[in-house]
Amino acid sequence: xxxxxxxxxxxxxxxxxxxxxxxxxxxxxxxxxxxxxxxxxxxxxxxxxxxxxxxxxxxxxxxxxxxxxxxxxxxxxxxxxxxxxxxxxxxxxxxxxxxxxxxxxxxxxxxxxxxxxxxxxxxxxxxxxxxxxxxxxxxxxxxxxxxxxxxxxxxxxxxxxxxxxxxxxxxxxxxxxxxxxxxxxxxxxxxxxxxxxxxxxxxxxxxxxxxxxxxxxxxxxxxxxxxxxxxxxxxxxxxxxxxxxxxxxxxxxxxxxxxxxxxxxxxxxxxxxxxxxxxxxxxxxxxxxxxxxxxxxxxxxxxxxxxxxxxxxxxxxxxxxxxxxxxxxxxx
Length: 332
Description:
Elements: E1 9-12, E2 15-18, H1 19-54, H2 58-79, H3 93-112, H4 119-126, H5 140-164, H6 166-176, H7 191-208, H8 212-230, H9 247-253, H10 258-261, H11 271-276, H12 300-312, H13 316-320
Helix pairs in contact: 1-2, 1-8, 2-8, 3-7, 5-6, 5-7, 5-8, 6-12
């Protein structure tokens, strides 16, 4: 048989094209998708949420949008994963979902029973005209951006303290104990950890007088960016990582190395990481082996109890010493 270097032809319904050209076009399409998927998905989510507000159905539209985002990211994870090893089952899917439902249930419970437990008595005056210094007559879009920045300050410090103070780290370690990142462990937080973030996050914009509509937008955008941040999709972010908490930045945050993991604390925006010097984005691939150095139970009930047991065993030094690169070096 005689072989040649001529391209092999592949028949398509629109005519003939070479396999080489097909691969090139698919490669180009993947590159374009990698650079546009993150911003396009976020913009689409924001647009559909705005439509939900416009038709006075924000909750229903939000839930449908969140579900659609999950499906889109799941399909992308299967077809263009960032880490192929993260596609393997880690046996934590049930625990991930259970933690998510527990944390979300806590939030819903606070909202539903806020009047019973007295929260409404504090929030209602903050929504009155003339309260605080918030510019309520400004366009809503600007108010939402202001709410994101203000809330981010509380979220940043809630997150940072949860990494650097041992008692709170024990709760936050539930989230970092995963050995792979994908959309299902987006909401894997101990309910105590979630409560701290919620309180510190929304208290600042509320105290300043931000309207509840802006707070609702904050919750929606945080949910969208949270799932986008944890997805295992091969994407490129460029300058976006200077502003937003992208998957590229968050993968460094999940590193086992303290010098890398105790960085990039931003929930949605990176403004406070920039100001306080905790933003990193090394020019190399983030580690595929992620997780924690402690032994974490595998079952959901045991994980709920684990932080309380660990805190009980802390000595006086453990309650007063901050975690950093120096005092977390392995003991020989």
